[in-house]
Amino acid sequence: DQDTLVNPTNHSYFNLSGDFTQTVDRHVFQLNTEGIYPIAPDGVPAKAPDANRDVVKHIYNGALLKDIFAEEDEQIQLVSGLDHPFALPAGHDNAGFLYDQGSGRFLLFKTEA
């Protein structure tokens, strides 16, 4: 038995504005993350998360998606955004949220992992 990284993503996209002619740039994204798993150019993630990147701090504190996507971090630039696994703290069911200030819509991320 050993811990195994699993990233069961289906690449869902959410536009909480209700106006699909608008981008998600003004959505606030927050994740209670302990680090991002850097990925290689072929998309394979590293074995250990990196907590020392500015982008991790910005996501932990909550940031506009447009600001995250504009980060000069090579990991953000590599995939033109976020396509990474994140390390979440054990025993913390509220993983984070996505919020659109204009509509007031709020999407809460929860986990039992």
TrEMBL record:
Name the GO terms of the biological process aspect: carbohydrate metabolic process
Q: Which GO terms describe its molecular function?
A: carbohydrate binding; isomerase activity
Q: Tell me the SUPFAM superfamilies matching this sequence.
A: Galactose mutarotase-like (SSF74650)
Q: What is an example of a Pfam family matching this protein?
A: Aldose_epim
Q: What is this protein called?
A: Aldose 1-epimerase
